[in-house]
Amino acid sequence: MHILIVEDNSLVASGIKAGLELHGFACDIALNLALADRHLTAGHFDACVLDLGLPDGDGLALLRSWRAAGLQLPVLILTARGTIEDKVAGFQTGTDDYLTKPFDLQELVLRLHALLRRAGGRATDLMALGDCQVNTGTGEVWRNGQLVELSRREWALLAALLQSRGRVLNLAQLHDSLYGFDLDVGSNTVNVHVHHLRKKLGSDIIDTVRGIGFRLGARYCQPGL
Questions:
Q1: pLDDT of amino acid 176
Q2: Which of the four CATH numbers 1.10.10.10, 3.40.50.720, 3.40.50.2300, 1.10.3430.10 does domain 126-220 have?
Q3: Cα–Cα distance measured from residue 5 to residue 40, given in angstroms and rounded to the nearest whole number
Q4: pLDDT of residue 185
Q5: d(Cα 224, Cα 32) in Å, to the nearest integer?
Q6: What is the pLDDT of residue 187?
Q7: Half-sphere exposure of 47 (CA within 13 A, CB side)
Q8: Between residues 32 and 173, which one has the greater pLDDT?
Q9: How far apart are CA 164 and CA 58, in angstroms?
Q10: Could you state, in order of their start, the residue ranges of all structural domains in the chain?
Q11: What is the pLDDT of residues 91-102, one digit of tens each?
C-alpha cells in the first residue's frame, strides 16, 4: 500500500514514514501543499495522512480542492487540532478519518487498515482466495491451512492487487506501491515478485495483461469474494 504523508515537520514525517514502513506500507512525504499535489500527479497512492497546518496553506483547503476535483483518495487527517469544531470541519470537508496528535503509531496503522478496507468494500480483514486465506490487517497468508512466508515486497504487491481488485495496475503503479518514489531499483523487480507470488500461492493468483501490467486473478475478482 502506497501512502502519501503530508506533514511539514520533517522529523515527524520521517518518524511516521519509518513506522508505517515497518508495517508493510510504502510511503512518500510532502512537506507542503504544492508538493502533495505534485506527488498525486506523478504517482498512484492508496491513502493520504494529512496534516492541517502547512507552510503554504491549510490542509483543509487542499482536501476541499481534491474533493471538488472528484478525487476519491482515502484521507486520514492527523493534526494537533482536537476540538469538536475542528473534527466537524474535517469530516464536512471530506476526510475519511481524523486522529489528533500526540498519537500512537499502532492506532494510526489500525485506522489506515480500516480506511483501506472500507475503500475496498470489505467489512473484515479476512479474505478467501481459492485455497488461500489472507489477513490484510496482519499481512499473514495461509495456503491449505499452512502459513506462507512472504517477503515484505511480496506482501506489498499482493496487498496492492487486492486493494484494486479487478483493476489493472501498470508497472509504475506497482513500483510505487512496493518502493515509493525514493528508491531506485531495477526495472524487472516487479516481475520477479510476481513470479515468487505465483510460485507460493498458485499460478492463477495474478493475471498478466500484456502491454499494460498485472491484476488480481480473474477468478478472485467475482462479486462476493
A1: 80
A2: 1.10.10.10
A3: 11
A4: 61
A5: 40
A6: 64
A7: 27
A8: 32
A9: 30
A10: 2-119, 126-220
A11: 999 999 999 999
Residues of the chain with pLDDT > 70: what percent?
96
* Rounded (10°) angle between helices 84-93 and 59-68: 30
User: In the numeric block, which cell numbers belong to residue 26?
Assistant: 510504502
Asked whether the predicted pLDDT for residue 167 surpasses 60, the reply is yes
Q: How far apart are CA 147 and CA 202, in angstroms?
A: 14
Cα–Cα distance measured from residue 140 to residue 213, given in angstroms and rounded to the nearest whole number: 25
Cell of 215: 491484476
* DSSP one-letter code for 197: H
Cell numbers given for 163: 486493494
Amino acid identity, position 12 = V
- Cβ distance 30 to 71 under 8 Å? no
Q: Shortest CA distance to 165 belongs to which of 199, 206, 123, 204?
A: 206
- pLDDT greater than 60 at residue 223: no
pLDDT value at position 183?
A: 59
Burial class (CB in 10 A: 0-12, 13-18, 19+), 19: middle
SS3 state at 85: helix
* Range from 31-35, 106-110, 161-165, 204-208 carrying the lowest mean pLDDT: 161-165
Q: Is the pTM of this model over 0.90?
A: no
For domain 2-119, give the CATH number.
3.40.50.2300
Cell numbers given for 110: 489500525
